[in-house]
Structure formats: structure tokens, C-alpha cells
Amino acid sequence: MTHTELIAKAREAMKTAYVPYSHFPVGAALVAKDGTLYTGCNVEGASYGNAICAERTALVKAVSDGQREFSTLAVAANTDDFCTPCGICRQMLYEFAPDLVVLCSDRDGNYKEYTLRELLPGAFSAKDL
Fold first, then answer.
1. Percent of the chain beyond pLDDT 70?
2. What stretch of H or E contains 32?
């Protein structure tokens, strides 16, 4: 799957976001090492702390299916700038894929490519325990 196609999958997932409070829909598309695609959207609740981001939704779906290794993540939002994963998502993704390629897109489908290590320098990991 090309990067453009992966971003399109993230934009498609964004359409199912449940965001009645922030009105900030986000979609994510995560590719497992075996090529399986997992998508996710953000889901909010009236108790704001119970929200889950699109990236973690995709990751949790994948892990619950037995996946443990991932290659690429695309993130999409209706923003002028490139939408990057929040700190919590970065840390959770690092647990499984420190070398993950992260494609951060804007509302027009333009994107910037990062590695997760670039987005989360000095990450906390099992070696820190």
C-alpha cells in the first residue's frame, strides 16, 4: 500500500470519529508487519478523561488480534498543519514499534514522514524498568 493510499484509509476512518465535544475528528491507519491494516478513530465521552485517540484505537484493535509488530502509521485530521500523535499515543506505539514510520497528514492529504524515534526522543521502555 502506498503512503497516499494509507493516508486515504486514515481519512476514511476519521469519518466515524465520535467527537461531540471537541469537534476534532482524527483517523488512523496502522499497518502490521504482515501487511494487515487496522484503522481507528477517536472516541470521546462526556467525562473527557475517558477519550481514546485514533492511533491507540487502531493499535488496541491490532494487539487484540494478536499483532505485535508494526511498520507504518498514517494519521489524518482536518487541520491546516500536519497532525501528529499525542504524547500518550507516541509512548504506547513505542512499546510495540520504536522504528515505526509515521505519516502525519493535513486536510488536503499532504503529509510529512517521521520515525517514531524522531517524534519521541528519550522514550521510556522496558530497559528503563
1. 100
2. strand 26-32
One-letter amino acid at 31 equals V
**Active site residues per annotation:** 55
Q: Which of 92, 83, 105, 99 is nearest to 62 (CA)?
A: 92
For 7, other C-beta atoms within 10 Å of its C-beta total 22
Query: What region does 35 belong to: left with phi over 0, alpha with psi -120 to 50, or beta?
Result: left
The pTM assigned to this predicted structure is 0.96
The CA dihedral of 36, 24, 103, 84, to the nearest 10 degrees, is: -120
pLDDT at 55 (0 to 100): 98
Measured from the Cβ of residue 51, the count of other Cβ atoms closer than 10 Å reads: 15
